[in-house]
């Protein structure tokens, strides 16, 4: 008996997987059995307590219970936080009679940063400023910044980005990702558009890197393609069972 494994539901990926079936790895089987036992030891013990004490239909498990503990610990830190008062001074400036303006914030005096912790601190600074006198820009610093490409999506970072940019809740993000993974009908049958969406890995398959480089070359020219693609390091506790979430193809799937 052999096992066929693939990370994306596309015609080429499935055919390639069947060409290279692999032997059953009993370590993986044992790991699955261990998870199954833990689900029952934890879930079967705690879920009835939730039904009796909180609400019918709730469930607990080896993952949910730990995640809830982390949320509770974080909430306690937030509740125990002692806020500190701080003030700022902001102003709008205009050069001579020009219409354009720019904003500036108070930093300090004589190049030394000063923290404003109350209203009295603010009043003391304002008393030293002669609003009738012109302000002088003594230094302008221009810098070029190089921004590194973000790491490929893991499940967690995909959910965070979807929430930040689109306002999606986790459930909606995962529902959409599931449908993209299982396949969308693009006119020639259903085809998977992204790789498996439950992963903690930042690894990208070499074939996907090469295809991305080929796409960039064809669209923008060789100068813009990465000849030595960056490899992102996984977190220390990453299982790396599946590669990062990515499009199944940089080119059209139609």
TrEMBL record:
SUPFAM superfamilies: Prokaryotic type I DNA topoisomerase. One of its GO terms (molecular function) is DNA binding. It catalyses: ATP-independent breakage of single-stranded DNA, followed by passage and rejoining. Its EC number is 5.6.2.1. It holds the Pfam family Topoisom_bac. Residues 25-254 form the Topo IA-type catalytic domain. The keyword Isomerase applies. Keywords: DNA-binding, Isomerase, Topoisomerase. One of its GO terms (biological process) is DNA topological change. The keyword DNA-binding applies. InterPro entries: Topo_IA (IPR000380), Topo_IA_2 (IPR003601), Topo_IA_AS (IPR023406), Topo_IA_cen (IPR013497), Topo_IA_cen_sub1 (IPR013824), Topo_IA_cen_sub3 (IPR013826), Topo_IA_core_domain (IPR023405), Topo_IA_DNA-bd_dom (IPR003602). PANTHER family: DNA TOPOISOMERASE, DNA TOPOISOMERASE, TYPE IA, CORE. Belongs to the type IA topoisomerase family. This is DNA topoisomerase. It comes from Lactobacillus iners LactinV 01V1-a.
């Amino acid at each position: 008996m052999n096992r066929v494994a693939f990370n994306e539901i596309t015609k080429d990926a499935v055919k390639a997987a069947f060409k290279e079936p692999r032997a059953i790895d009993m370590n993986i089987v044992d790991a699955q059995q261990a998870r199954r036992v833990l689900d029952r030891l934890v879930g079967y013990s705690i879920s009835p307590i939730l039904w009796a004490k909180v609400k019918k239909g709730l469930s607990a498990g080896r993952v949910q219970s730990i995640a809830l503990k982390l949320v509770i610990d974080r909430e306690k830190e937030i509740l125990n936080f002692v806020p500190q008062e701080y003030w700022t001074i902001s102003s709008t400036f205009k050069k001579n009679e020009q219409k354009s303006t720019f904003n500036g914030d108070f930093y300090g005096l004589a190049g030394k940063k000063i923290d404003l912790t109350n209203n009295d601190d603010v009043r003391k600074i304002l008393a030293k400023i002669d609003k009738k006198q012109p302000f002088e820009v003594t230094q302008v610093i221009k810098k070029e910044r190089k921004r590194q490409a973000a790491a490929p999506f893991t499940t967690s970072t995909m959910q965070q980005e979807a929430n930040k940019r689109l306002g999606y809740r986790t459930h909606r993000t995962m529902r959409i990702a599931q449908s993209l993974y299982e396949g969308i009908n693009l006119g020639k049958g259903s085809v998977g558009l992204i790789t498996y969406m439950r992963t903690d890995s930042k690894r990208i398959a070499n074939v996907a890197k090469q295809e991305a480089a080929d796409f960039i070359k064809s669209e923008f020219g060789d100068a813009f393609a990465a000849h030595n693609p960056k490899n992102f390091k996984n977190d220390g506790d990453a299982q790396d069972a599946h590669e990062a979430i990515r499009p199944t193809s940089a080119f059209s799937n139609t």
